[in-house]
Structure formats: C-alpha cells, structure tokens
C-alpha cells in the first residue's frame, strides 16, 4: 500500500471524530466558519410596516413592500443558504396599531427586521420594541430627527432622510434668496413639531426670525384658516411642515388665496408623487431637498425603470431607500454570519454603502445613514421632456453637511466630549 495512504488510515483510526467532521465539511463544500452561521427560524423574515391605505400610502406603502421584495429577489432569494421572506402590514398612522403589529411580528411571527415605518409617532413606539427585543429596525419612511437623537437605539438605522436634512436643504436655499421672516404651517404630531423646531433652529442661526406657526390635524380637509393666518403674518416664507396630501392641499390653498404672489411657499418635505399629483403648472419653481431622484444617473434610471414596470410610477425616495436598506441589511447578515440584531447593526456600521441610492454612504453610531442629499427645483411645464421628468438638480449637498452632526446629538450611544 502507498505509505501516504497507510498513514492516512492510521490517522483516521486515531482521530475518527475529527476525520468525520473534516470529511463532512469537505463533501458539503463548507468551511469551519460556516458552522457558526446562525439564522433564527432558519430564514430571514422582513416586515414592511407602512401606511398601506392612508394619506402616506402613495409615497411608501405597497411601493415600499415591492421595493423590499425586489431587493430580496436581487439578492438571490436567500442569505447564508436560507430563504428570505418579505411580508407587509398597515400601521394606519396610529402608534398603538403599529406597535401591536410590530410586537406580534417580533415576538410570535419570527420577523427579524422591520422596514419603512413612515410615521414618526409609530416609529417611536416600534423603536422601543426593537430596542427591547434586540431586533433590527430600518427606518426608511420616518422623518423625525428624534430617531437619531433621544429615540435612537443600538439596532435602529435611520436610512433615507430626516427633518433636519430636509429643513436644512430647503431653508438654506430660501435664506440665500433673502427670506428673513418665516411662518410655519405644520401637521400636529411628532413629525410636524420636529420639522418646525428645525425651521426655528436654522432660521434663527442665520439671523432670521420665525414670526408664527400653526398646526393642523393629520389629513386635514380644509387649509383656509391656516393659510389665512400665514398670509396675515406677512412673512417672507411660508414653510410647510407636513407631507403628501397635506402638502398638496396646503399648496393648493396658498394658490387660491394668492400667497405665492407676495410670499414664498416652501415645502419642507415633498415627494415626486406630490409633484405628479399637483402637476407642473402648480408645482413649478418650488425648491426643496430630496434624498433621491430617479433621473439623476444611469444607475438611478436603470433601477427606477425596473420599479416602474411593476408599479407603473416612478419611485419616491422612501421606496428607493427601502430597496437599498434591505440590500444593506442582507449584506450585513452575510458578513455577520447570522441575524442577531446587535451583530447585524454593527456590520451595517462597518460596511460602506455603494449603490444607485447612495455612494459612500455610512451608518454612524447614532444609527444615521449619512449620504448626499440633493437640492432640486421643479421644472416649468415647457422644460419637461417626458412623463416624470420633473426636477432640475441645483446642487449636491454632501452628507456631512446635510445631516445633524454628531456634536449636536442627544443620542445616548454617542460619547460627546
């Protein structure tokens, strides 16, 4: 017998368990680190918690769910050899309903990560659960900067935008044009209050003044009284601290009362869906910040056209960001070798984000995903060459300038000097 073969037989007799393990690894095409890979329930389950039927549904909702499914499909439908499952749920813009659904998902239905949560009050409630359960929360739809301040969590990632970045971009643009006095019309819950506070911060720091504010119910039916108060203030700029249909209806009301002739109307959070709803004639020349525009680069166009084939409309920044966030999450699971919340969150902080949504994106210790924002202006009807050709990109705002610096953070995870 060959001496090498004889030696191998002797080794097997001396260490049968080691040999069996090595043979098993070899026959399965695995390596030792693969043994450490662990997924709860032998799958990764992602829950898209969004407004599926209310005023925020068009900018997130089923579009976010489809974007998450696209990300799972493009990842190959599995991670670490196990299937990826994406489910959806409707929080109905109510914190108690959102928290109840999130609790059931985390505790009983094996959901490893919740995505979107396009309502700040719901996001706070779900954030508390994610912290307690050591589960991932990818906030692609929530706006309040509180989610990376006092409501930050070790397993929460605030991915797409926040009130600080949106107000920063819009306010700086208008302040540069000489708007010194401001009046705020905002929605009466956490998101609107946070945005109004950010307006006061930026305007005051620039030597301007907020001369008044008024808050309306979510999904208000009549804006006339709020707009008349803004008109009476004679402020240079009327800031709209609301979103989607509330923003659209507020803009229509300002047009009806003629405010735009003497006062600048500044939407602080405007989606491409809102411009589509208003039409270019009503929305033209409005300037605001956004985290994504479908027609900005070859990569944004390629992905957005794929999305359009499924949804028959171009994606909002929430929907595009949801795809990117889910992809980044799956990459982090792969790198971590499992889906345990804190381990995955740390991998998301360690891995750079380079895709059609963000180039050089980075998740900070407070959970903020820092990426470039864009100052855009709505085109005039004559400037638009095709459907959904709505924006002129005026400037790129580097992420470090767009988002709240860590030196101002109130997050308990940040060690400020």
What features would you describe in this structure?
The protein has 417 residues and is α/β, with parallel strands linked by helices. It has two domains: 199 residues, Response regulator (Rossmann fold); 153 residues, Response regulator (Rossmann fold), CATH 3.40.50. Helix content is 43%, strand content 19%. It has 15 helices and 16 strands. The chain has a six-stranded mixed sheet, with helices on both faces. A four-stranded parallel sheet has the order 8-7-9-10, sandwiched between helices. Strands 11-15-16 form a three-stranded antiparallel sheet. A hairpin with a 5-residue loop joins β13 and β14. α6 packs parallel to α7. 52% of the residues are buried.
Write the layout of secondary structure elements.
Layout: H1 3-14, H2 16-28, E1 44-50, H3 61-74, E2 78-79, E3 82-90, H4 95-107, E4 113-116, H5 120-133, E5 136-139, E6 156-158, H6 163-176, E7 181-187, H7 190-205, E8 209-216, H8 224-233, E9 237-241, H9 244-256, E10 264-267, H10 272-278, H11 280-283, E11 287-290, H12 298-311, H13 317-336, H14 341-350, E12 353-354, E13 359-363, E14 369-370, E15 373-378, E16 391-397, H15 399-402
Parallel strand pairs: 1-3, 1-4, 4-5, 5-6, 7-8, 7-9, 9-10
Antiparallel strand pairs: 2-3, 11-15, 12-13, 13-14, 15-16
């Amino acid at each position: 017998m060959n001496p090498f073969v004889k030696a191998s037989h002797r080794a097997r007799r001396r260490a049968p368990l080691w040999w069996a393990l090595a043979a098993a690894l070899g026959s399965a095409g695995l390596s030792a680190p693969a043994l450490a890979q662990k997924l709860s329930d032998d799958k990764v389950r992602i829950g898209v918690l969004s407004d599926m039927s209310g005023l925020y549904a068009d900018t997130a909702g089923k579009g976010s769910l489809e974007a998450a499914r696209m990300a799972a499909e493009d990842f190959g439908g599995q991670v670490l050899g196990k299937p990826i499952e994406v489910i959806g749920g409707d929080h109905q813009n109510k914190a108690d309903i959102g928290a109840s659904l999130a609790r059931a998902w985390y505790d009983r239905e094996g959901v490893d990560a919740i995505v979107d949560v396009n309502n700040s009050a719901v996001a706070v409630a779900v954030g508390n659960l994610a912290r307690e359960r050591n589960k991932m929360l990818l906030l692609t739809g929530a706006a309040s900067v509180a989610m990376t301040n006092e409501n930050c969590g070790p397993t929460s990632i605030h991915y797409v935008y926040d009130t600080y970045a949106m107000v920063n971009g819009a306010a700086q643009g208008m302040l540069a044009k000489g708007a010194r006095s401001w009046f705020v019309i905002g929605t009466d819950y956490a998101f609107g209050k946070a945005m109004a506070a950010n307006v006061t911060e930026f305007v005051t720091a620039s030597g301007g003044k907020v001369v008044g504010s008024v808050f309306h119910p979510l999904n208000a039916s009549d804006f006339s009284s709020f707009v008349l108060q803004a008109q009476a203030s004679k402020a240079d700029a009327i800031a709209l601290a609301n979103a989607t249909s509330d923003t659209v209806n507020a803009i229509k009301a300002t047009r009806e009362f003629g405010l735009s002739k003497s006062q600048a109307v500044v939407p602080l959070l405007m989606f491409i869906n809102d411009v589509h709803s208003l039409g270019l004639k009503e929305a033209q020349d409005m300037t605001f910040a956004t985290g994504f525009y479908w027609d900005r680069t070859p990569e944004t166009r390629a992905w957005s056209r794929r999305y359009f084939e499924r949804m028959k409309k171009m994606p909002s920044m929430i929907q595009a960001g949801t795809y990117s966030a889910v992809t980044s999450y799956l990459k982090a699971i792969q790198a971590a070798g499992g889906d345990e919340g804190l381990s995955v969150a740390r991998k998301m902080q360690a891995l750079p984000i380079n895709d059609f949504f963000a180039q050089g994106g980075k998740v900070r210790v407070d959970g903020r995903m820092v990426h470039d924002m864009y100052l855009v202006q709505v085109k005039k009807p004559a400037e638009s060459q095709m459907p959904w050709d709505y924006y002129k990109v005026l400037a790129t705002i580097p992420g470090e300038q767009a988002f709240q610096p860590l030196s101002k953070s109130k997050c308990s995870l940040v060690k400020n000097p």
